[in-house]
Design goal:
By secondary structure, the protein is α/β, with parallel strands linked by helices. The chain is globular. Bound molecules: S-adenosylmethionine. Keywords: Methyltransferase, S-adenosyl-L-methionine, Transferase.
Length: about 475
């Protein structure tokens, strides 16, 4: 009897077709395939930087996820989704307790949970379920009963220091670049998870439900505070959290090729010593990377006083800071902008932290200080809709915007990598911010007196930050 070809098979074939692309590249480079049971060696297997491979990985993931959500009973899928609630806290425990470092020191044979727990100072009966929650997500592996070892995913949780050094100086745990992923895990599992647990309560509380205020978000319920996230970070009692956040932003910056930043704006076309004001620039990680590529730029990095203090301490020996090519200035971006008519106002990862009402204020302060030649360059994600769209849906045509496509039978744009969407929601949870679609972006900027001229995108899914260039109207 002829077999009916189902969507399941289409999905499986799509997976196979794309895995073949990844394998062909491995074969061309004489590289072995990735092994989930082995520790990760950067560059040794898949070439993640190859755009064709990266697209194949995305399609494989998208098809695999859709296959999983289709083949199981719907109730089982939903139970699986909600049961994930213990995964992020388990990851937090593993990173805070330095389990990856302890297991790396133990070697490939692994270590009994009693020994791991004794090194971490926790109850082995409580640590074992935490580790098994992770091993069932392929993070760590149980090599024999109660004996755990590192694998591909857990090996990248190593912060680059010995477990002893980390235990002796916990305040230095995020100091090395290798700890980048752990800072993000710390930020998300501490601030994000505790806040998002109150999402429904926020949507349904009349005092919060329709508020644009940054101190009326789920974060305020989760942390029982009336402060905005940023005011909260400025409290001296939260200095460890502020340090982790700033270090996390630096780590995220490192994960994005600086070439993307270089290529998404016409920096080269600017005059010598062109003045760029990095508004809400954090500790200045962006200019430090960019000015090394384009030395003629001059940056003033503006941020809150404590962040500026942190930046000045961190970079006191940095040549670009010592020579004044990059300088720091405490400035509240809701106040009148002290620098008039610069060449560029630059904002990265700022507007997505705020609701429209506050973005309008930030953009208006910059518009008031802009000269006729000043450019506004914003790096934020431009997110697509999760369905495919027509030209009509997309409104104004802006050069550089990419349109998502989905091979059949995939149905959800972003399904294989929903980072831009989860990040957007995460920002709403923390501060009533969020990522914006193109239509939303154009309208918001126009209301503040800026016309979006171009959008430079590296992928249509908003996974990479887009570069939005606008001019004064
Ligand atoms: C998400 S971080 C982005 C940092 C940097 N632009 C980057 O991409 O790495 C947001 C920054 O906005 C700063 N910020 C928040 N409120 C501010 C305000 N009212 N004035 C100036 N900076 C502010 C925070 O301190 C933080 O450094």
């Amino acid at each position: 009897m002829a077999r009916t070809k189902s969507t399941l098979r289409d999905l499986a074939e799509l997976i196979l077709k794309n895995v073949e692309v990844v394998e062909a590249d491995l074969a061309k480079r004489n590289a072995s395939g990735p092994d989930i049971n082995e520790t990760f060696v950067p560059g040794a297997d898949i070439n993640f930087g190859n755009p064709e491979v990266s697209e194949a990985i995305y399609l494989t993931t998208c098809a695999a996820q859709q296959l999983l959500q289709t083949i199981r009973p719907p109730q089982a899928c939903l139970i699986q989704e909600v049961s994930r609630h213990v995964v992020p806290p388990s990851l937090r425990c593993a990173t805070e307790l330095h389990v990856a470092e302890i297991l790396s020191e133990a070697g490939p044979e692994g270590l009994h949970v009693k020994s791991i727990a004794s090194k971490c100072g926790v109850d082995p009966l409580k640590l074992a379920p935490v580790l098994r929650c992770l091993t069932t997500r392929w993070i760590f592996k149980e090599v024999r009963p109660d004996v755990f070892a590192n694998n591909r995913l857990s090996s990248v949780l190593h912060k680059g220091q010995t477990s002893e050094a980390l235990q002796q100086n916990p305040e230095k745990k995020y100091d090395l670049p290798k700890a980048g992923i752990c800072t993000t895990i710390g930020n998300v599992t501490d601030m994000g998870c505790k806040s998002s647990a109150y999402l429904y309560e926020t949507l349904s509380d009349p005092d919060f439900a329709f508020s644009n205020e940054p101190n009326r978000a789920s974060f305020n319920k989760g942390f029982n505070t009336n402060k905005t996230l940023w005011e909260f970070y400025e409290d001296p009692a939260q200095s460890a959290r502020l340090h982790r956040f700033n270090t996390g932003m630096q780590a995220l910056q490192r994960m994005q090729p600086v070439e993307q930043l270089r290529d998404s704006f016409d920096w080269v076309g600017l005059r010598d010593d062109a003045l760029v004001v990095d508004v809400g620039g954090g500790i200045g990680s962006v200019p430090l990377a960019l000015v090394k590529l384009i030395p003629k730029l001059k940056f003033v990095v503006q941020d809150m006083p404590l962040v500026v203090e942190d930046a000045q301490k961190r970079w006191k020996d940095e040549e670009l800071v010592k020579t004044g090519r990059i300088s720091f200035q405490a400035h509240d971006f809701f106040e009148a902008q002290p620098i008039q008519h610069p060449d560029v106002f630059f904002l990265q990862n700022i507007l997505h932290d705020w609701s429209d009402k506050f973005c309008l204020q930030i953009l208006s302060r910059l518009r008031e200080a802009a000269g006729p030649e000043t450019r506004l360059f914003v790096r934020d994600r431009v997110i697509p809709y999760t369905c495919l769209t027509s030209d009509e849906d997309n409104g104004e045509k802006i050069p550089g915007v990419l349109k998502p496509t989905l091979p059949k039978p995939l149905t959800a744009v972003g399904g294989g990598d929903p980072f831009a969407f989860t990040l957007g929601l995460g920002l709403m949870v923390l501060a009533n911010g969020g990522e914006r679609t193109l239509n939303h972006t154009i309208e918001l900027y126009r209301d503040a007196g800026w016309k979006v001229e171009t959008v430079h995108q590296f992928d249509a899914l908003g996974r990479a930050i887009s570069g939005i260039t606008a001019v004064p109207i």
